[in-house]
Prior knowledge:
The complex is a heterodimer.
Chain A: H1 3-34, H2 40-49, H3 59-82, H4 98-109, H5 119-122, H6 125-155, H7 165-190, E1 201-204, E2 210-213, H8 218-227, H9 248-272, H10 276-303, H11 307-312, H12 324-337, H13 352-363, H14 374-394, E3 399-400, E4 403-404, H15 407-433, H16 445-460, H17 475-504, H18 521-553
Antiparallel strand pairs in A: 1-2, 3-4
Chain B: H1 2-41, H2 43-46, E1 50-53, E2 56-60, E3 82-83, E4 93-94, H3 105-122, E5 149-150, H4 152-166, H5 170-179, E6 181-182, E7 193-195, H6 196-209
Antiparallel strand pairs in B: 1-2, 3-4, 5-7, 6-7
Amino acid sequence: MGPVLAGVLQLLALIGALALVHVPAGTYLARVYSSAKHLRVEKWIYRGIGADPDAGMTWPAYLRGVLAFSAVGVLFLYLLMRLQGILPGSLGFASVGPAQSFNTAVSFVTNTNWQSYYGEQTMGHVVQTAGLAVQNFLSAAVGMAVAVALVRGFAQSRTGELGNFWADMVRGVTRVLLPGAFVAALVLVACGVIQNFSGIHEVGQFMGGSQQWNGGAVASQEAIKELGTNGGGYFNANSAHPFENPTPFTNLFEIFLILVIPFSLPRAFGIMVGSVRQGYAILATMVTIWLGFVALMMCTEFAHHGPALQAAGGAMEGKEVRFGVGSSSIFAVSTTLTSTGAVDSFHSSFTGLGGGITMLSMMLGEIAPGGVGSGLYGMLVLAVIAVFIAGLMVGRTPEYLGKKIGAREMKLAACYILVTPALVLGCTAASMALPTPPHSLLNPGAHGFSEVLYAFTSAANNNGSAFAGLNANTDWYNTMTGLAMLLGRFLPMVFVLALAGSLAGQRPVPVTAGTLRTEKPLFTGLLVGAVLIITGLTYFPALALGPLAEGLAS
Amino acid sequence: MNTSFTNTARLLGAGLRALLVLTLVTGVVYPLVVTGVAQGLFPGKANGSEIKADGKVVGSSLIGQQGYSLDYFQPRPAHGLGENSVNTQYKLILSGATNLAADNPELVKQVQDAKAQVVKDNSVPGYTVKASEIPPDAVTSSGSGLDPDISPQYAALQVHRVAERNGLSVAEVRGLVDAYTEGRTLGFMGEPRVNVLELNIALKELVAKG
């Protein structure tokens, strides 16, 4: 069997597993966020917080909960890193500097997990497990809570209430992420991922001498890193490191973990708005884009254009033998089409066009299937825009799921769409125009520009992967990517929750013969088109200067 | 004004309490329970899959090593590996890739140099390596710099050299490579591979017996 066929079979196996699991998982997710009952452990947590989980919140109240919780999270994580030098259980590692601590704290709280540090030499046990890994859970739970609030906006009428933020966030942790991560962590350990709290470990080498390794709670962090679409590696090499991802099976399993919640949420959405078929129209859009991008990536990586890859006879630079080109291509697309940013191979050494595909994946706004929660709300905002475009074409007042899309809704959706490109293009332009930031580039020519474009695309879209040749540990990049991550996460959330509040207050309009049937394949096609056209028009000039220039030259 | 300040303080207080409670659950209880179960069920794997030769630990079967003499099978290049620049009381290996672009002249040179080296090292009397036979993994750096494996094709290229330098027959060494070649998991996952450290340990034992 050749590598191409093996790659296709791995893709099919992954699709099969997701097709089987998304049905019970989607149904379960819908029940988690609809149930009126609280588990005993949740009641203890609510008592600890001092919050009434049954109090309904309007959108400003919900938003205040999100922002307060996230602000406290950033501050706590920042202090943990600044104080690492005096914390016990930190391997004697020094405290992290202010700019890098700010960047990293923001990065993990915004579900980005951009890393301007080397995990193995910077972060001790306490920061990794009680700081970074905790935000892997919490940022994912916040993303799901906001998505559920938007879904309730569609499902409810004339209340203006979107549910309770504390209840939604806590349930995401206790009923979804924690049990899932626990099982996944044990599977990973069984395959060779390490899980211990030992110090720096010195072992002999075959030819004499010795090498020093970090121990660590890697499996428990790896599991939630993928399941919560976070992506911050314990080690610098992330999921290419054999202690994070030791076998071909763990590689596929980690891709599965990345995709399982984002691909299950559309079904949960369908159930919650009372029409599973509406959920499947959204799911079909996500699957179409994801499959198309995986196919393109496999084509370009197996074709291995580019002088160095031609000389080598294959695109193995930055890739591990155990995964090969096929499995690495699936990982690269899945991690950039979600908000994960974990890597099992290094995107900077992909073919020019392959690197371009990873960038375009993020530029779509990470909605196919997107990060946990953020993928669903991003896609629903685009669905609102697609409905609006369709409404203009036939001259009818647009409506989606029984709610009118009026001027207020469209303004909010448009603001949502504009935030990220403004951040990406503005910060990239500033970095290229100023005298010092270009000193961080590793590669010459178009690829050097791509490194900066990639960095801000990744930060503003809360992805976290990198063209890692860029030296991002400078005050400029730590500060600017930090701001891009903050604004790229929370401004869209403001618009989403405002949109949800506006929808929840409406009285539903009855379905008539003239209503656009948003559960039909025609709408899926329209939505795919809207996604590609909006992104294409926004980013084409920038892409042409970077990956397209590189890819077409080779 | 006063009430909005109080409300904000109350909200931040709730956020802090939520963070502390959930840190306890996900940042203390969860990793400790996973560690307990992992150490109970899979102690060898949870501690890094250490591997022994002559009763001494010589590394991890998962972590590739550099610096083998030409008597042994060679691993992939690892130009992306680094050494720690902070907390220098340790000598840590920093995992990583070169991140060089496919059109970077530096990478082209790395690949061409590696190719020439593979031809030179592995061509022995009666067996000449052709540059076109060299598989890509032999001349490129991996993602982690710690790739423990090489492709079976790269191992096969090295058989003649290893046999000659150790006084073994080509057939014996080839048999060893075959025994240590791992196919795709379930026939379709990943790519076939040979673990360099395990292969070299077995080679050393074979030579010692021989």
